[in-house]
Amino acid sequence: MKKTLCLLCAVLLVASATAKEYSISTPNTTLILSANEGKELMFNYYGTRSEANELRAAGRMLNYRAYPAWGTQCVLPYASLVKQHDGDNAVKLVVESVAESNNGGISKLSFHLRDVAHPALLIKVNYSAYNDCDIIKMNTEYINEGKKPVVLQKYMSAVLPIQSDNCVLLHLDGTLRNECNEHIVPLNDGVRTITSQTGTMAGRESNASFMLGLDGRLDETNCPVVAATLLWMGNFHFEFYNTHTAGVPTLFMGGINPTASDYTLLGKKSLSTPEMVFTYSNNGKGGVTRNLHTWARKHQIIDGTKEREILLNSWEGVYLNTTVANIESMTKDFAALGGEMFVVDDGWFGVKYPRTNVSSALGDWEVDKNKLPEGIRPLIDLTHNNGMKFGIWIEPEMTNTNSELYEKHPDWVLRHPDFEPTYGRGKTQLLLDMSNPKVQDFVFGVVDKLLTQHPDIEYIKWDNNMRIHNAQSLYLPKALQSNLLVDFALGLENTLQRIRAKYPKVVIQLCAGGGGRLNYGYLPYFQEMWTSDETDPVRRIFIQWGALNFYPSNMLAAHVCATTGHYTKRTTPIKFRFDVASMCRLGLELVPAEMTNGERAYAKRAIEEYKQIRPIVQQGDLYRLISPYEGEKNSASLMYVNSDKSRAVLFAYHIYFNINEQSQIIRLQGLKADAKYRIREVSPENLGHPVALDGKVISGSTLMNEGVIIPELTNRYKSKEQTSDIRQTNDYKSVVLELVEVK
Fold first, then answer.
1. Is there a single domain that holds both residue 550 and residue 667?
2. Which of the residues 100, 291, 343, 565 could staple to 279 if both were Cys, CB 3.0 to 4.6 A apart?
């Protein structure tokens, strides 16, 4: 059997010696393909920037189908499966033409593949390379040039053959308040899949991103790594094939999840699949992470190179009890701490069905005058008078059955006409059908009305708290029901495009019960993501660490919670909570009036200190030093370094105290070896008592090669003179150090 497979693969890998080679390059990587008119498109190479003749001499040029289709090699993995109107599902794709361009700093190759048996089907396989960062994007476009429909049963965005049979995979998974857990596993023989079927929260259980170590390991600094992420708002599907068969590469393919998504493509219509972003580095996990962060800030996130404000969100402070008195108190107190923005969360709306609990009022975006007699305006003025910007919460894709919207438009929700629907939050929540143009108009109108009436709203928190449980549209005809999961995402994207066209600068945070929508597909429309509803700092170390593998710090919102976490019920010191939240976009999620005097004094200092290091944290290059997922899972350390390596910020955390525990050596990265750096502790636990490293001047070479020891992380004891308001114990220790080059 294995011999037969080898012979079959050998035949498959043969290509014409006269095939023309096409390549596109980034500053440090190259992708090469070969194509002959009337022949299959072949993939040759992706990796370090190199010349084809040298790669060929070194035996590093593959010759594998770049976009395999079901039909002629059915025993092998396939990226495309198309059912014709007559039931035929065999496809043979050959090159018809090639288009090359270089515009706006992006080089593009587009291979037009025609189905030999059904020439009305054209598939464009597209590659784009950035000239200013090491990112290459792939996607496909399916075009039905005929009059009769075809059904796309599998329509992957990207295929990547990899010349290694010893790959190690890093991926993220999780659940509500436990998102972005990092997992590293070997790619053994067979098939491994990473998939999501939640519809609106495709980033929760599994994130649409991965890393592959190509030589049997995944370290931070010194191994070849490919990383990728899919830019898609809906369900996704990744497949990894490792046959350990001679001449057959490890194969990745990914794109829209085909489960329950046979897409009927009508005559004279097309469907573009979401883009898959790839990057490659010989500098380990750290190298590909920094590549992705650089690209994201420059090209994918709105205002990605700008600093984000420090905000207070009202949710964990007052939950649905949004009143003028509560907001006035929180706004005034937060301004006194140095806050920059105040965000009113859920609970401000509902007339016939007031939003007093989570079972009512979604869809009725009118102010509840019992809570806010004069509307939103006094809250905006109050916030502005305290020198801060104002933001507000909405959940425009949802409704409750207890709402005026549902009474008027019960046909706008997703549900089967003959079944009792599955309800979400509050046992009344239902999802609006974003495939319906009228619903798209409504959702756009929610934002448009709010910002038209109150043009000085500077921030919106856009939430989503329900998956697609009822995958049935009352708008789509029966013959197109399997288009729903794709059309929902496309309808949402269309709505967001309209919003951004009219309101390009309003800061919008995307929340999905926390981090359920952590995906770059949303980020042309949102400036930041709410990383998780879990604000407990111990859990947040792990969640933020995982997310930072792929997403930069300035788009990950991290908030300081109350002394006792609302979900874990864990009590942690305020310094630890601030130091964990400060590794990303700092915010608060508490009632300042409930803090002790000592906590308020520390919070004011910590906020001012964060403003000083914010440019480095939010825009610097990330270097991970000690992973919380390794060893005893007791410590973590990472650092950010600015572009000219003159400043850096080091974060070090020690979670649990053990008697006689030795302090770890932390070896820094990313500095200039021949430079000297002065060290300063940021926001020490007690003024006048910084760590021993404070004030020291040490060379970059020593800091990186020999490292530093911070004994205070494991054995800093509290003196009687130290205020008890800080509540510093020997658990939950943290130190933040700023390094400044001495000229």
1. no
2. 291
